[in-house]
């Protein structure tokens, strides 16, 4: 998924929607930041930090040079994996 597509999907969500990464074993970890790596935008996670809200991600990712980047997510020291979408559950956006 490109950053542009992600922004289109989250645009109409509640501004206070919190974003988490849902691992393959169904663990939910807050998305706290991002970095640019090899033409990819990688969401960073941290178990003991506050997750980003919709409005924060929307503002941070609207930079023109970021829009064509592909989205990935990285769990702690694990390898990055591609983001294919998210689902809403109990007021949280769970990135998958």
Total discrete domains: 1
Structural Rg:
12 Å
The stretches of 5 or more residues where confidence is low (pLDDT under 50) are none
- Tell me the fraction of residues in β-strands, as a range: 35-45%
Shape: globular
Query: What is the N-to-C succession of helices and strands?
Result: HEEEHEEEE
Oligomer: single chain
Count of discrete alpha- or pi-helical segments spanning 4 or more residues: 2
Give the integer mean of the pLDDT values.
95
Secondary structure tally: strands: 7
Instruction: Give the biggest sheet.
Output: 7 strands, mixed
Structure in words:
The protein has 96 residues and is α/β, with parallel strands linked by helices. The protein has one domain (3-95). It has helices at residues 3-10, 54-60, and strands at 18-22, 28-37, 40-45, 70-74, 81-82, 86-89, 92-95. It has a 7-stranded mixed β-sheet with strand order 5-4-3-2-1-7-6, with no helix packed on it. β3 (40-45), α2 and β4 (70-74) form a beta-alpha-beta unit. The longest helix is centred in the first third of the chain and has 8 residues, at 3-10. It is globular. The relative contact order is 0.30.
Give keywords.
single chain; 96 residues; alpha/beta; 2 helices
Topology at a glance:
Layout: H1 3-10, E1 18-22, E2 28-37, E3 40-45, H2 54-60, E4 70-74, E5 81-82, E6 86-89, E7 92-95
Parallel strand pairs: 1-7, 3-4
Antiparallel strand pairs: 1-2, 2-3, 4-5, 6-7
């Amino acid at each position: 998924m490109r950053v542009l597509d992600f922004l289109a999907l989250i645009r109409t969500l509640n501004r206070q929607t919190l974003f988490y990464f849902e691992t393959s074993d169904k663990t939910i970890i807050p998305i706290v930041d991002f970095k640019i790596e090899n033409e990819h935008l990688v969401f960073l996670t941290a178990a003991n930090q506050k997750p980003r809200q919709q409005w924060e991600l929307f503002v941070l990712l609207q930079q023109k040079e970021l829009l064509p980047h592909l989205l990935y997510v990285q769990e702690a020291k694990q390898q990055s994996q591609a983001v294919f979408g998210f689902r809403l559950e109990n007021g949280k956006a769970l990135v998958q």
